[in-house]
Amino acid sequence: MTTRLSIFPLPGALLFPRMQLPLHIFEPRYRAMVTDSLARDRRIGMIQPKASGDKPPLFEIGCVGRIAEVEALDGGRFDIVLEGLSRFRVVRELDVTTLFRQIEAELIADSDDEVLSLGARASLEMESRRFADAQGYAVDWEAVSRLDDASLVNGIAQIAPFDPAAKQALLEADSLSDRADLTVQLMQFFGRHGDADEGTLQ
Question: What is the pTM of this model?
Fold first, then answer.
């Protein structure tokens, strides 16, 4: 089943299902997109461009977000919070007259009840502690331990300071366990090499 989506191509700003992404909207085309979305279904497709420029090619996989919070600011700007609903796959870009780009997309039905093995969960938490300590992050580990597996995996994937290509690979992972395994590998890699992307918008 396909659906029509207005898209926000933004490098480094990835949204994962069940996570939240705050955005400051100031460009005219994206102010128009938010206004249009609020008048319809409040949905926006977050996706990474593969290059810079006015209309760059897109990665194949993104995530649909619902505008959960919105604050209208001076000059037509908005502060919004997107809540991740579902990953999607680009079917084709539509020929539109709107300032913002639109696509036909296929929603990806990820399982809501997938859980990690006890070993995978323990490995992820252990590597997260090691990575956070190395990066100097203060984390409420008691709160982390109470998160369900999907919230833990997707939460780390969204906020970790990996480069855009690594975060895209996490978004494209086919299952929660695959995403958890890749997250551990990336924390080990970036923890050793110290080249996590300082410029991420997360």
Answer: 0.88
